[in-house]
Amino acid sequence: MTTERSQSPPCVLVLRALGLGDLLAGVPALRGIRRAFPGHRVVLAQPPSLAELALATGAVDAVFPAEAPDRAVPDLAHWPGPPPDVAIDLHGNGPDSRDALAALHPRRLLAHACPDGPPWQATANERDRWCAFLHGYGIPADPLDLRLPPPATPSPAPGAVVVHPGAASGSRRWPGERFAAVVRCLRAAGHRVVLTGGPGEDALVHSVAERGGRPGGDVLTGGLPFGQLSALVAGASLVLSGDTGLAHLAVAHGTRTVTLFGPVSPRLWGPPPSPEHVALWKPGPPGDPHGRTPDACLLRIRTGEVTAACLMLLRNPRGGHRQPRPEVATHVH
């Protein structure tokens, strides 16, 4: 674990061994758990690469390393014991994640797949789904309780527009040449634009930078350390990205966002309704969020409407008066 293990107080073990966006979408539920068990030590089973973020939420006392390649259920057999007092499955709705926790013999197990588990809400937003799950067990949780504290370090590019063209899967990756066209327009309007990418996305980021007229120093590749990435996003004037973890991080820091959705509706994974956030989506049949090629709905989003959404948000001073955002601004046709 990331901190020393103590024999007391009793432990609550929470399983959510998924990615950056999954962790951030689970923060309201984690905070509900933290408040419901004030005398317990809350341990989150998740990838160790996200430990700094998990601890920054204030909802977690320690991280138990648990990897889940391809979103599988991790092996928890290396849990150092003793059995958790309470085990909570925020990983999924099937029996596999429930069984992985049950094998640790907790005194109490909370899971969708348990006989007393609340029904799975397939059409709910991810934040709402897990808060409703806890409510089913008598644990209050607020789906809007998702903000992160300000980063301890300053932004490497304060006030910049952060453009993140990558995504974990090809189906959620808007074409690079379209991102480049938006970057050119934003720079022509006088905005500083910083491009970011995760591990393995260097070629994509450099391609967008070259087509978008990059000035020196405004390309951050290779996957920034979390502290630097968090500071960059928190200090940005706007984050433009696909449906990926960076969009969730921006929302958690109160940074304005334009997010492009394709295979999955923003009703399921989008930000809370707010004039600070524009989620662009063309309704259509649900796609594969882990597919290899860009989703057909995503490709229907035009460069002009993305540029217009960015400039609309950037023209409005933070906290200034804005017209209420109509429903069609969230689900653009």
TrEMBL record:
Keyword hit for Protease: no
Keywords, in A-Z order: Glycosyltransferase, Transferase
Pfam families recorded: Glyco_transf_9
Residue spans crossing the bilayer: none
This protein's record includes keyword Translocase: no
CDD domains (UniProt xref): GT9_LPS_heptosyltransferase
Gene3D superfamilies: Glycogen Phosphorylase B
Superkingdom: Bacteria
PANTHER family xref list: LIPOPOLYSACCHARIDE 1,2-N-ACETYLGLUCOSAMINETRANSFERASE-RELATED (PTHR30160:SF1), TETRAACYLDISACCHARIDE 4'-KINASE-RELATED (PTHR30160)
Protein's name according to its UniProt entry: Glycosyltransferase family 9 protein
Source organism per UniProt: Streptomyces cinerochromogenes
